[in-house]
């Protein structure tokens, strides 16, 4: 099949792009012809260097790096970006069988969908976040630091000061969500959920759209090596952006209460606050290889206590693949890979439940058993790029055939 993948970046700047890049490589290795449309100019991951992958830059810019008034209008409807997308599609040597969107909110707008529909192309979207339904994209109240309970675009939603970047962003994003809802009205759209929790939650939020739902795990690119020995570790480890919605502050507070050091790999707005807390070490960002070299040596467990309904953080699956126990938030989709007390713990994103789980890591025999189970259970059904590509191929063929019919 001829597949077009559309993402903002061609490097793993975040989970969505990482999945997009690894999906492209897996599909190419499975024999599909892949065109990777890169929304914003920048470098490309070495994984895209494959004879079955053609990378086409769209030369867009990040909407929020433009002057405020231009950014606001572009976020609602960017005709110029849509025209560039149309020209790129029309310039392809072969007609695509399908277009797969991974991320489009940073450099495009709802204007991309009429471009695709006008060319009678089937469209599938992987739901890495909640932007298809929720204006701020994470279904989380940054003002109250808790999950949202409001219906998107309801009166309560419109009034809520929930956006992490302020009122202007909320206003633009509300407008974009309303335009998106009208743009997709009556049009079939296939969506891929990366966790069962996402499927359950998003099904209700997206009732305004004519959606066909599919469920496929994200790919995890981890070579199988000897499992780590977490009993040798000296700290609990957090990997990712240091923000409150991802629970970085919970890790530091719970680790201090449990009497364990906390190691943070990443950066973000909570860095100074965390650095002032006892027992905290912050390494900053590292390359993926360096991250796991460090984690395999230092971690007694990986901790991912997200306060928002995170769809499926990749670091959780990568840690399990390395034979490391995981303490995951019960709000995150990744918790469904955790068997509580077997390969880690699934806990509420609150200090005391998290601290109680961390206290159980003080026993080397317990930690070693959790690590062995993490490795055994993961590799019994690994989330490899090949498995991901095979699942995508089956969904693509069904969509193509139904579209043709």
From TrEMBL:
<dbReference type="GO" id="GO:0016757">
    <property type="term" value="F:glycosyltransferase activity"/>
</dbReference>
<comment type="similarity">
    <text>Belongs to the glycosyltransferase group 1 family. Glycosyltransferase 4 subfamily.</text>
</comment>
<dbReference type="Pfam" id="PF13439">
    <property type="entry name" value="Glyco_transf_4"/>
</dbReference>
<protein>
    <submittedName>
        <fullName>Glycosyltransferase involved in cell wall bisynthesis</fullName>
    </submittedName>
</protein>
<dbReference type="InterPro" id="IPR028098">
    <property type="entry name" value="Glyco_trans_4-like_N"/>
</dbReference>
<feature type="domain" description="Glycosyltransferase subfamily 4-like N-terminal">
    <location>
        <begin position="14"/>
        <end position="132"/>
    </location>
</feature>
<keyword id="KW-0808">Transferase</keyword>
<keyword id="KW-0328">Glycosyltransferase</keyword>
<dbReference type="Pfam" id="PF13692">
    <property type="entry name" value="Glyco_trans_1_4"/>
</dbReference>
């Amino acid at each position: 099949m001829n597949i077009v993948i559309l993402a903002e970046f061609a490097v793993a700047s975040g989970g969505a792009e990482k999945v997009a890049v690894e999906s492209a490589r897996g599909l190419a290795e499975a024999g599909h012809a892949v065109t990777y449309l890169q929304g914003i100019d920048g470098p490309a991951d070495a994984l895209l260097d494959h004879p079955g992958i053609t990378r086409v830059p769209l030369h867009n810019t990040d909407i929020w790096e433009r002057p405020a008034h231009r950014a606001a209008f572009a976020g609602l409807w960017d005709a110029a970006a849509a025209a560039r997308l149309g020209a790129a599609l029309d310039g392809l040597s072969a007609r695509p069988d399908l277009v797969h969107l991974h991320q489009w909110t940073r450099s495009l707008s709802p204007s991309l969908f009429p471009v695709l529909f006008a060319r009678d192309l089937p469209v599938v979207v992987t739901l890495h976040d909640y932007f298809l339904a929720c204006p701020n994209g994470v279904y989380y109240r940054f003002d109250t630091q808790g999950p949202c309970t409001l219906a998107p675009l309801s009166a309560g939603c419109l009034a809520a000061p929930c956006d992490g970047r302020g009122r202007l962003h909320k206003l633009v994003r509300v407008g974009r969500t309303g335009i998106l809802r009208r743009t997709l009205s009556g049009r079939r759209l296939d969506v891929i959920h990366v966790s069962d929790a996402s499927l359950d939650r998003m099904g209700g939020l997206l009732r305004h759209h004519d959606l066909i739902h599919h469920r496929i795990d994200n790919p995890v690119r981890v070579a199988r090596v000897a499992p780590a020995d977490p009993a040798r570790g000296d700290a609990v480890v957090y990997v990712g952006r240091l923000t409150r919605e991802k629970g970085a502050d919970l890790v530091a507070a719970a680790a201090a209460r449990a009497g364990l050091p906390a190691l943070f790999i990443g950066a973000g707005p909570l860095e100074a606050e965390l650095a002032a807390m006892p027992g905290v070490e912050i390494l900053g960002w590292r390359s993926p290889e360096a991250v796991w070299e460090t984690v395999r040596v230092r971690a007694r467990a990986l901790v991912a206590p997200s306060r928002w309904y995170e769809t499926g953080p990749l670091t959780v699956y990568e840690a399990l693949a390395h034979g490391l126990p995981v303490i995951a938030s019960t709000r995150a989709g990744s918790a469904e890979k955790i068997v509580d007390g077997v390969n880690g713990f699934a806990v509420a994103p609150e200090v005391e439940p998290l601290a109680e789980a961390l206290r159980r890591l003080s026993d080397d025999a317990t930690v070693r058993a959790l690590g062995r189970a993490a490795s055994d259970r993961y590799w019994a059904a690994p989330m490899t790029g090949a498995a991901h590509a095979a699942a995508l191929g089956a969904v693509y063929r069904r969509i193509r055939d139904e579209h043709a019919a």
